[in-house]
């Protein structure tokens, strides 16, 4: 009874979500941890809010649903705040987009090469 409510740590400064990804993650954390979204700052650690390894697995599943990102649990232990997790999700999204662009460019270059080879064979 003498323990403080989960999420309260003296000296913690509340920092509100600053973008859509952080806002969505705050909603996910709220559902998983069973606390109000408004009490979850982007720099407050998951475990300081009452999270544990089983709730981390639940959060992993919800992130998969919300963001279509399959983040390894071991990696999630290294990303204990919304800000860190949001940065990781943005980075993964940018890496995927860059990889897709490179593949598209490579496919276009291969197609051009094949067309040129066919033209040379016709001559």
Order of helices and strands: HHHH
Number of helices: 4
- Poorly predicted ranges (pLDDT <50, ≥5 residues)? none
- Report the end-to-end length measured between terminal Cα atoms: 89 Å
Major pleated sheet: none
Morphology: elongated
Beta strand count: 0
Mean pLDDT: 85
Give a structural overview.
Helix content is 61%, strand content 0%. It has helices at residues 20-33, 53-67, 73-77, 82-122. The mean pLDDT is 85.
Relevant terms:
123 residues; mainly alpha; 4 helices
Structure, briefly:
The protein has 123 residues and is mostly helical. It is built from four helices and no strands.
Q: Helix and strand layout, with pairings?
A:
Layout: H1 20-33, H2 53-67, H3 73-77, H4 82-122
Helix pairs in contact: 1-2, 1-4
